[in-house]
Amino acid sequence: MALRQRGLTGQAVELPEPWSSAGLTIVLPTYNEAANLPVIVEALFALPLTGLRILVADDNSPDGTGAIADELAARFGADRLTVVHRPGKQGLGRAYVDGMTRALEAGAEFVVQMDSDLSHAPEYLPQMLGTLLATDADVVIGSRYVCGASLAREWAWHRKALSSFANMYVRVLLHLGVRDVTAGFKLWRSSALTAIDVASVRSNGYSFQVEMNYRSVQHGLKIVEVPIHFADRREGESKMSFKVQLESAMMPLSLRRRAR
């Protein structure tokens, strides 16, 4: 299901109570995001969401992101920002599973997954939470491929083509009814993550996003997509390796075989 909503212009929607004070935990996986992390943390805590908490899952970044995360936790308080220092680079999926599992154990009502590189604008979060609660959805996706969405102008044509092809490839194979199957910007009900047994997910990279969508559809969860503008990362380099691309290509085939 896709909802058309006006794009944000840098100002977050203000939700009424009790929605604005809902227990919302943002899971931010980081690897070499020293320049971006302070910016996104500031932006998240500036949102009109009083129940917002942040969990940073850092994969022992050599650029000192973990130490910066600790400084931010000391500044904002450990009750608002938690840092998980992981032993090394184990991949996006593993960081999300670790962070989401910890968020559920801590009693979060809602859990958000989003990139730490500012490609996902924090200002969309109140809109996404309001959409989830108003539509009684289980998952809301910040989508790049529904009406009203857009991609960064900085993206080269071949990058846009690869992203578009990847989504079409997965949709053809799995018939999920989701337009942006590789989206990494999602807001989940805690009950939805429990239903799909997020702790047992083993995939990584874009394939992690695909498997999460697949499990959601298999469990009959209600998915709503809202349009976003997907920006280019502010600083640093993409973590998309050949290994991640290969796993992402193989995952839909593996899921399709399991369904037979």
Model description:
By secondary structure, the chain is α/β, with parallel strands linked by helices. It has one domain: Spore Coat Polysaccharide Biosynthesis Protein SpsA, Chain A, CATH 3.90.550.10. It contains 8 helices and 9 strands. It is globular, with a radius of gyration of 17 Å. The two termini are 26 Å apart. Mean pLDDT is 87; it is low at 2-9.
What is the strand content? Answer: 15-25%
CATH superfamily: Spore Coat Polysaccharide Biosynthesis Protein SpsA, Chain A
CATH class: Alpha Beta
Broad structural category: alpha/beta
| Number of β-strand runs | 9
Essential attributes:
two-stranded parallel ribbon; 260 residues; alpha/beta; globular; 7-stranded mixed beta sheet; Spore Coat Polysaccharide Biosynthesis Protein SpsA, Chain A
How would you concisely characterize the structure shown here?
This protein is an alpha/beta fold. It has eight helices and nine strands.
Protein topology:
Elements: E1 24-30, H1 37-45, E2 52-58, H2 65-76, E3 81-85, H3 92-105, E4 110-113, H4 125-135, E5 139-143, E6 150-151, H5 157-174, E7 186-189, H6 190-195, H7 205-218, E8 223-227, E9 229-230, H8 242-259
Parallel strand pairs: 1-2, 1-4, 2-3, 5-8, 6-9
Antiparallel strand pairs: 4-7, 5-7
Helix pairs in contact: 5-8, 7-8
